[in-house]
Amino acid sequence: MRTLTDEEAKLVEAGRAVAAVVEKFAGVCERDRRPPRETWEAYRAAGLKGLLVPKAQGGHALSAFAMAHISEAIGAADPAAALTFIPQEYSMAAVARYASHPWHHEILQTLMAGERLTGFLLTEPHAGSDAAAIATHAEETTDGWRLNGSKAWVSNAAHMDEHFVFAQTRPGSGAKGIAGFLVPREAAGLEIGAPYDMLGGHVAAIADVHFKNVRIARERMVVPPGEGLKAALSAIDLARINVAAMSCGSLGTGLDVALRYATKRHAFGQAIGEFQGLQWALADIATELKAARLLTYDAAEILDRDGKAAAAAAHAKKFATRVALRGLAQCMQTLGSNGLRHDWPLARHFANAKISECLDGTTEIQNVVIARELLRPYRQIMS
Ligand SMILES: Cc1cc2nc3c(=O)[nH]c(=O)nc-3n(C[C@H](O)[C@H](O)[C@H](O)COP(=O)(O)OP(=O)(O)OC[C@H]3O[C@@H](n4cnc5c(N)ncnc54)[C@H](O)[C@@H]3O)c2cc1C
User: Fold this and answer.
1) Of the residues 43, 185, 211, 303, which has the fewest C-beta atoms closer than 10 A?
2) Ligand 1: which atom is nearest the Cα of residue 151?
3) Can you tell me which atom of ligand 1 is nearest the CA of 360?
C-alpha cells in the first residue's frame, strides 16, 4: 500500500479534525434527531468542499486513496453524519464534469463555498437497485422543464438547497432518457416529506421529496438526456469504497471500546479481557478489520490507477460492511448489557453498520457486480 503525498496528508489531517467534531456531536444529534450543523461548519471551514472537483475549477482533485482515509476517520466517529456531506462531493463532481453553461460554473462555486447544500436524488419509492426504472418525469416546456414524480431515501432532504434530481425525459426509454437537473428548494411544487423513523442514522434526516408541476429554467438541466444514469453512477465505485472505509473506521471504534472495557471490567476475580473466549472473539474482529482495510485501500488504488474498480469496490464494500455488522455485535456483547446503552457509542455504530449494507448498492448488488466479473472470461470462452 502506498503512502499519502504531502498534499493529501494535509487534507486527510483536515478530515480528521472534522471527524473530531463529528464525534463530539454524533450522540446528541442522533438522540435529538437534529442536523449536525457544527460538523458542516467544520467541514466548510476546513476548506474540504470540492474534494473531487478538478483543480482548474477550484477543487482538490483528491485521489480515492486519500478520500478513503478521510472516510475512515469520519466513519470512526459516525458514518451517518458523513451521509449529510460526503454525497455532496459526488454531486459537485458531476456538476463540474457536465458543466456546459455559465450558470453551471457559478452554481459550482456556490456549492463549493458551502453557501448552498446539495445531494443526490436517484432512488424512488418503486425503483432502488434498478435505477434505470425511475419514473420521475421531466417534460420540456417552451422556457425550461416541468418535473413530476417522487424521490425516496433522500439523505439530508430537509436541509438541501439544490436537489440534484435524476429524471426521465422520454418515458419508457430507460437509461437513454435519464437526465440530471438542479432543482432549488424554493421551487413551487417541491414538497419534502417527514424524516423517516428508522433503526438509526436520523442525523441524515432521510425523507421523500415530491415534485408537482415543478417548473425550472432550461439551464438547470446539468446532465443531458442519456447521460443521467451514467452521471449518477459515475462515482459509484468511489462511493462503495468510501462506505467500506467508513465501516472500517466504525469497526475500529467498536474494537477500541471493547478492548478498553475488557481490561477494566472484572468478573470471577479477573478482568474479562483475560478470558480466552473473549480474547479470541476480539482477535477475530482484528483479523477481519485488517482484511477489510486491505480490500478497501486496494480498491482505492485500483480506482486511482485505472479509473474504474467495479469488482474491487464491490468486494471491499460487501466484506467491510459485513464484518462491521458482525464485529460490532460482538463488541457490544463484550460490554454485556451496557453495550445496549447509548452511554457508549456501540449501538449507534451497530445501527449504522446495518444501514451501510443497503447504501450505495445492497450486498446482493455487490454480488451481482462480482459475479458478472467472475463469469465474464468463462462466457467469452463458451460463446
Ligand atoms: C441511509 C440511506 C441513505 C440513502 N441515501 C440516498 C440518497 O441520498 N439518494 C438516493 O438516491 N438514494 C439513497 N438511498 C437509497 C439506496 O441507494 C437504496 O435503498 C438502495 O439502492 C437499494 O434500493 P431499495 O432500498 O429500493 O431496494 P430494492 O432495490 O427494492 O431491493 C430489495 C431487495 O432485493 C434485492 N435485490 C434487488 N435486485 C437484486 C438482484 N438483481 N439480485 C439479487 N437481489 C436483488 C436487494 O439486494 C434487496 O435485498 C439511501 C439508502 C439508505 C439506507
Assistant:
1) 185
2) 11
3) 17
Axis crossing angle, helix 236-264 with helix 310-334, rounded to the nearest 10: 20
Q: Is the CB of 372 under 6 A from ligand 1?
A: no
Hey, whose CA ends up nearest to atom 45 of ligand 1? 364
Domain-located, residue 1:
no
Give per-residue pLDDT as tens, 152-176.
999 999 899 999 999 999 999 999 9
148 and 175: one domain? yes
20 and 130 share one domain: no
Report d(CA 164, CA 297) in Å as an integer.
29
Amino acid at 247: S
3-class secondary-structure state, position 191: strand
Q: What pTM was estimated for this model as a whole?
A: 0.96
Whether 95 and 130 share a structural domain: no
318 C-alpha vs ligand 1 centroid, how far in Å? 14
Q: The domain containing residue 97 runs over which residues?
A: 6-112
**CB of 123 sitting under 6 A from ligand 1:** yes
From the CA of 87, give the closest atom in ligand 1: 8
One domain, residues 222 and 252? no
Nearest atom, ligand 1, residue 122 CA: 11
pLDDT digits (tens, 9 = 90+) for 290-332: 999 999 999 999 999 999 999 999 999 999 999 999 999 999 9
Q: Strand 178-184 relative to strand 221-223: parallel, antiparallel, unpaired?
A: antiparallel
Distance 357 CA to ligand 1 centre (A): 9
Q: Give per-residue pLDDT as tens, 10-59.
A: 999 999 999 999 999 999 999 999 889 999 999 999 999 999 999 999 99
- 237, 378: one domain: yes
